[in-house]
Amino acid sequence: MFYRPEEGHGLPHNPFNAIVTPRPIGWISTRGDDGSENLAPYSFFNAVAYVPPQVMFASTSAKDDRDGTKDSVSNIRETGVFCVNIVEYAMKDVMNRTSGPWPKEVDEFELAEIARTECETIACSRVAAAPASLECRLTDIVTLRGEANYLVLGEVIGVHMRDDCIRDGRFDVLTFHPLTRLGYRDYSQITELFSLTRPGEK
User: Phi, psi at residue 96, to the nearest 5°?
Assistant: First the structure.
């Protein structure tokens, strides 16, 4: 099968998200200028550079009570900071609860009864029990093609790792089973690993 996206695929559901999988989930916490807080998951998320460490996430829709975007991007525009919280399998249900199109005055930490704690380097809350959290300073917001598509880029200036996730000097993902996004309404969890050595490496 071959299709051109502008002409449609003819299938019951869009296969694009199912093709580009699995995707890590960035659970983005932000605080607005007015002190209101937001927590929302984004599956268009990834790390993009080592030195300095940098991450990205993309917001691809808008809410009526925000100017052409969603709460996360709006808050980041105001404050210039955000925190990426890593989602473990055990948090799948509360993460999903925060994904709704809630009004901007709704605090998802309270809505989903998620414990929060203050970040160290930025004025923002983070998920207290997350396996890891990345405190980020905004570097750029790129307007992408299409309606309400924004790419948010940030430099990681603070890193939190839960102590029980560090084994033998390594951040061990098998201690918490990262949640990943697949296509449609499907998710998965990382439960096993294997290693490969690149050509030329020792």
Answer: -60, -35
Q: Distance between CA atoms of 87 and 127, rounded to whole angstroms?
A: 10
State how many domains the chain has.
1
Give the tens place of pLDDT for each residue, 119-151.
999 999 999 999 999 999 999 999 999 999 999
19: which residues sit within 8 A by CB, 6+ positions away? 183
Which residues are CB-neighbours of 70 under 8 A, at least 6 positions away? 40, 59, 61, 62, 63, 148
Reported pTM: 0.95
Any idea what the CATH number is for the domain that residue 112 is in? 2.30.110.10
Domain residues for the domain of 101 are 21-189
Q: Looking at the domain assignment, is residue 195 inside a domain? A: no
